[in-house]
Each structure stands twice: as C-alpha cells, then as structure tokens.
Amino acid sequence: MLSKEQAAEIFKRIEKLTTAEEVEVLMGGGRSALTRFANNTIHQNVAEESHFISVRTAFKGRTARATTNKFDDESLRSVVAAAEALSKVQHPDDDLLPMASAAEAGPATALPPRYFAETVAVGPAERAAGVREMVEIAKREKLTAAGIFSNSESFEAIFNSRGIARHHTESSSVVSVTMLAKDSSGWQKANSADVRRLEPKALAEIATRKARESAGPKEITPGKLAVILEPAAVLDLIGFMFYDFGGMAILDQRSFLNERVGSKLFGENVTFWDDVTHPLQSGAGFDGEGMARERVELVKNGVVQQLVYARNTAAKVKSSAVAAKLGTIRATGHGFPLPNEIGEAPMNIVFAPPSSPQTTEQMIASTERGVLVTRLWYIREVDPYEKILTGMTRDGTFLIEKGKVKHGIRNFRFNQSLIEMLSKVEAMSMPVRASGEESFDMVVPAMKVGDFNFTEVTKF
Amino acid sequence: MKEFAHLALDTAAQRGATYADARVVDERQRALSTKNGKVGHVSSAESLGIGVRVIADGAWGFAATDSMKREDIERTATRAVAIARASATVKSHELRLAEEKPAVADWTCEYKTDPFTTSVEQNIELLLKVDEEMRGVAGVTLAETSMNFRRYEQWFYSSEGADIHQLRYITGTGYSAYSFQGSEIQKRSYPNSHGGQNQNKGYELIEELKLVENARRVGEEAVALHKAAQCPEGRANIILDSSQLSLQIHESIGHPIELDRVLGMEANFAGTSFLTLDKLRNLRYGSELVNVVADARPEHGPGLGTFAYDDEGVQAQCTPIINQGEFCGYLSSRETAAAIGEKRSGGTVRADGWSRLPMIRMTNVSILPGEKPLTFKQLIASTDEGIFMDTNKSWSIDDKRYNFQFGCEIAWEIKNGKLGRMLKNPSYSGITTEFWNSMDAICSREEWVLWGTPNCGKGQPQQVMGTGHGASPARFRDVKIGTAYKGN
C-alpha cells in the first residue's frame, strides 16, 4: 500500500523522466486474501500482494498508456519510454482534450469511512474460524457447505501534470456460503468495508433453511409468472443496463437508450441514481481522469433523466446531432482511464426507497401464484435494444401459492426484457447493499414483478 | 529466476511445508483497438511476480507477491505455510497428490514472427483499413477492431525437483460491425465474436486471417439483418458453424468434465456438474459420431490450451473424453486424480499469472472431425430442411451444465440442400446429452478449426484463462429453436 505522499514522490520521479507535453499516472494495488471452502473443508486458501503503475503520456492529440508492476528507477524509465513511444506513432485525435486541471476536476468528494483496520487485521486464522462456524452448521444439519471468506485493503491514486493529485484507500470483506443437500441448495452472500458487519453464521443459517425448504424440487410448467426477486437477483439482472447509461454508448448507437432519453421507459415506482457518497456504497470519489464523481439522477419515476459523461465524451456529445435530445450534458466524473472505447458508466447505483416498502414476507403473502428466486446465474444479453436477458435461477427457487411458500421447484431459464420487467414492479423492499456474481455491488431492493418470462425448466 | 524460486521452496521447507512449488511469471502485453476510424486505445503492460503453493499439516496454502526482493519472497513463502496451517484447522480429509516424476524441461511454443517485433504503426494501419472497409457499407453505425499480443514466460520449480521453463506467444484479433436502425441493433463479427480468433502463435496468425478481405461482407451482413425474417420458434434441424460449435463444446462438455466441479469444489461459484462419478464410462453422452479429446500437446495445434507441462509440472497429455458417444474421461489435477483413485493427473492445471492459484482448466477440448470426407457444402447439400447458424451472440447454461441456450449473430434457412433466405436473431436451446445425441453429421478435417476462447472465467478470486476448442461444422436433428425471443 502506498500512502498519498509515497505515490506523489513516484509521480515526481516520473515527471522528471518524461518529455511528453502532459503526463498522468495511475497507481493502485494492495493486499488481499481469500479462504475458500467446499465439502466442509478449506480446500483453497490464498493471499496476494500486488501493485501497478500506469503512465499515460500525451503529445498534441496523441495519447497512449503503458503499465508495469515494478517501481525501481529502471522500470519507471522503461514504462515512461513505452508510453511515449506508443503515443508518438498515432494519428492526432482532434477530439482529445488536454488533461484535466485540478480546478476542473473539482474538490475532493467527501466520502464516509471506507477503510477499517479491523478488516485489514483479519488473518488466515480468523477467516478459518469464520469458515468453521459455517461448516459446523452444515455438519449439524447433515449438509455440505461451500463458500468464501475474504478480506482486502487497496488503494488507488491518480496524478497528472496539470495538478491533479488524488488518493483513496478502502478495505473490503466478503462472505458467501452455499449449503448443499441431496437434491437442493441454498445460498447467501454479503460484503462490507467493515468486517464486523458480516455475520457468517446468520448467512449460513439462511442458506441452510433455503436448502432444506427446497428439497425434493418439483417441476412446474414454465410461463409468465409473478416473481419475487431477492436483492442479489435484482442486482445481477439490472447490472446489464448501466453500461448503456453513458454518453459514449449513445454516440456509438449501441445503447438501449438510443432515442429513449427523456421518455418514460419504466414504471412510475422506479427511481435510481448514481451516488458514490452513499453510506452503503464503495469506491473512490474520483474517476479515471481524476474528476470528482457527482451524484447523478439517472431515472426518476420511470423517466430516463440524465446520462453520465467522461470529459471527452461530454465535449463530443455537446457538439453532436443528438445533443438536443439528451438534457443536461456535462462531465460527471464517471469516465474510465483513457484511452478507452467505452467512455463511462455509473458504478454506484442506488435505488430510491419505495413509498410503501414491503418485506419479502409481505410480498409472498400477497402473491396468489408465483416464484421466489434467491439467485440468478449465467445471465447474458439476448437483444441489446429491447434488453432481453437470458439466464437461470439457482440455489433456492420456490413455488408460492395462496400467499405461502409451498415447495422447491426445478430451476427455470428466463428470457426477460429488462424494460418490461422494470415496468411491472408491483412491490419493493427497502434497498440494501447487495452482492451477486454477475454484476458490481449496488444498493437495491427485493422486487415483486408481474409476468416474468420463464421459458424452460432444467433437470434439477 | 531459479534463485528466487529456490529461496521460496527452501523457506517453505524450513517453515514445515511437506510440499512446495513456486512459479515465477514474466508477462508482456500489447493491446490495440480502433473505433469508427480512430484509434480506440493503444497500451502495453508488463508484470513480474512469484506465486508459492505449499502443503503443510496436510492442507493447501498459497501466497504471491510482485516483489522479487529476498526478504519479500521469504515472507511470502512463510505466509503460504501459515495459510496452509490455518486451512488444516477446517478439513475433513488428508490431502493426497497423485505421484508425478519431477520433470526438467525447456519449451517454447512454435511461432514464426514475434508479434512484439511488428510496429505499432503497422498494427494500427491494418486495423484502420478493416475499419474503413466496414464503414464503407451504408448503414454500419459502429465499427470496432482489436489486436492483442501476449508473451508469457514461466519458470516452475517444485520441492520434488521439477525445473520447467516455458515460453508462449499468444496472438489475437477480431472485429465487429454494428448497425442500429429503428428499434434494432444488429451485429456481425469476424473471424469470431467475443475477441475474434486467438492462438498460441506469432504475428503470422494476423496474416493468415484475411482480415481486410472479409470486412465489407461483415458490414453488409450486419445491415442486411434488419430486413431478414425473424428466426422461427419451434423445432428444426440445425447446422452450426465451427466457431459456434466450439463454444457449445466449451460450455456443455468442457466445463462439466472438470473434476473439481464434479467433486463439489466449485459449488459456491461456478457450480457443480451433472457428470457425477457413477457416469464415467457409463453414459451415452452423444451419438456415435461424437469423439472429443482434451489435448494439451503441441501436436494438437496452437490452441490456447497448448503447453508442454501444466502448472503442477505434469506433462501435457491427450485424454479421451467422449469416445464414439461414450463418456470416458475427466479433466484432472494431482489432487483430484488421487481423490478418485487415478494413478496420474491428466495435466490440466493452470493459473492466471503469478498471483493466482493453479486450478483445473480446460486445455484444448476438441471434437474430432468426421472420418468420412464431408465438406461444408456437402453437409448443406445433404440437408433437406434446416437452419444454418453462424457466430455466437449469447450463451448461457445452468450450474450443473444441463440446460443451455445459445443465440447466434446470423442464420440462413436450408431448403432442399441449399442455403436460402437470411434469418435474424437465431437461437437454439436444449439439454446437453439430448443435444449431443442428436448430432448426425460432422464435417471432415479440412473444415476443422482450432478456435481460442480467451476469456473463460472460473475460481474465487476469479481467474481468466484461454482455452482451445477444435471443431468442424456439424448437424443436429430436431433441436428446439427460437426460445430466446419467446414471449418478448
């Protein structure tokens, strides 16, 4: 882990080495460890220390990046020379802006605490103790447990020759557990910057209950059914749309929001924004060029309000034919490190609390016939404009009848348009920090959705 | 590098490890892309580090560092032993490894032109020419190209005496044309989607692929798809091109035969497998025409799963997986081979760089071409009615690898032995064994291509690995089609 002062000293060394008109340096890395268990045994247990230094040079509209994980003088000289050589052979790009100045980047975004010494202090013995708690529950219930317990500390920093100097540290911890029975399973996952907020035993108990209650799964006919999606399932689905909420995606005409910004696309009850400062969010308060991340309201009462923009994208979109259709266009601090083709994306999604939040139990109680989904798996995009996604349910899928969970059912394949899904949200819980496997973490609710399109059933 | 690795091995032994191996990896990459007539990105990267894997108290530990200082390597090896001891506090059985005679070897993959000796200007010029061809077609709204080179050098040493140096060059390239019209985004890619073609080769791969020659057709097909009829829903005979069949193999054969999945070791993330141990040599996986091998040997071809030794120091092998339709083999490691009573590992363990734990990964899991001469044209000519689907667009399969659904970029009807009208948004779905049992024709060697899948994800923390899959176009009877758009 490099402190801000250490990172600044490295940047000074690089500034002296370069002949470029402008130079930007990204640094990052840290320590991470992950204890993995299966068959009630720790079978993989790893730790890693790694760092990188990435140099971008610019010469009159020409820019390129070179990266190394070595910080000695010779390696720094070499990585600077590589970035310069790659920059110089390119054709000038008239659209490339000068690097951001400190004034343009804005003041540092105030963030809640995201680095906890207690998380960093967790070692292999403590992770093993947490795993043992979960395995003991599995043994008690005659189940088989599999999962992870991980912790890490990391930093990211950005400096450039126009005065930007940003540095961010954070910690992270994750517990995930799958309980396996003869013909059923249950799953839970949680993460937090503060390891003290994780409750491995409680997660294991919920996974156990799901494995028990879904035993002997019955096959039911697929079709359009009411569905209750737990927060992890919601997150993994909706994560597929956020790369379309950037200005570059509109310019490239690869976004499902082409011709749809400003229109009512989702239900009245759907409002979400991007907010890195939210207490349940994670990440640095600056983007890949060092710009301060702003809070951006993306969708309000179903209407697409605004997109996010990197600096270069904002400038390009403003002078494009689509500018008039997009509302507010300004750099919002959501750009990826340059050079890149994607531009930007909102990565700190927060759903608005519903006016009448319901617990999952209340949603079940109000359902005549439907499906309760714990988790989804292998989600892929079928149609980029109607945003049809396919995927499978997994690790705890239940039939609901007359307001009660009846029994486990064999897992379904779905082919569901996200646009339609978010137009048919009948109820939501209070948003929570959720963690899945197919998308980045978000603050999202559980959702009850009408007419969810299950198309096939598998054999378990 | 030997000095660094032996320092780690000696330290681990002093701390009580009963087994240790150390991998030093030195990696270089160049990545280029273009978008709509401009350079998208140009970048280079290098990474050097060491990963130390140990057994202590009968359990695994692994630690890695990017520092090659003596004190940091000693600290990392010490840490690996401490981690193993913690692992041992939650274990249900003693760890055993299948025996392996330690190898001493030096191997470099075959290549003609070191891609890093080609100029960046030359690389960009070629990509921009491809880009220009695609955008020369009215209606193409986005053109993207990419080219990637990787030099991967590894030194492997073990406490048993293994001393193995390997060097591979990996080259990849591909491009896509997109067309947005009305309420539809269509896309065509060449030579494959999701990163194009990737092999253990030098720059000669780029020269072999006829990139410029195919660019206009790709653009034209992307635009033409808007006017094509929607792929119907129902059942049909389908013919898959070799790139789509390679992904079908990857998902519905390659993953379920991973013995770590079968034994439950991936249950929390990647999932398990329907291929439980009782099915070995006791399951009709496919029709008699289905012959599949997992072949890491260089003689199989320059696949992304080609090497001389795996990351446990086990020599590359060819393992029969499906023989005339009968399921007959798994992908194994020293640990999992011992667990099921096999005498030797299948040699399929690899790690994503120096920082990650080696684990079972697909090598080159390939379907063998048909023995009877059959060209693609002859295959079409022998099909009265059906649909030919080309180039993957979407892919999904359940966590035991039974139920799958694939979408392709484009399809054509087949009527009376001839390709007919174009179809858009084609998809097919099914159950793995039912699907492979429906295969009634596969083209012969001249149509066989060893495709590279550069981005297979597995493990926690997740690792990305390149795998190889050889395939010829093949025909499947009475398959469910069009489900992807059902109800939408």
Index terms:
heterodimer, A: 460 residues, alpha+beta, PmbA/TldD fold, 2 domains, six-stranded antiparallel sheet, five-stranded mixed β-barrel, 11 helices, 19 strands, 22% helix, B: 488 residues, eight-stranded mixed sheet, five-stranded mixed beta barrel, 10 helices, globular
Chain pair with largest interface: A-B, 97 and 90 residues
Q: What portion of the residues of chain B fall into strands of 2 or more residues? A: 35-45%
Classify the helix fraction of chain A into a percent range: 10-25%
- The quaternary organization reads as heterodimer
Tally of domains of chain B: 2
Shape of chain B: globular
What string, H for helix and E for strand, traces the elements of chain A in order? HEEEHHHHEEEHEHHEEEHEHEEEEHEEEE
Query: What's the number of domains of chain A?
Result: 2
Strand content of chain A: 35-45%
The span between the termini of chain A is 46 Å
Biggest sheet of chain B: strands, sense, closure? 8 strands, mixed
- The value of Rg of chain B in angstroms is 24 Å
Q: How many separate helices of chain B?
A: 10
Write down the overall mean pLDDT of chain B: 97
Mean pLDDT of chain A: 97
Overall shape of chain A: it is: globular
Q: How many strands in all of chain A?
A: 19
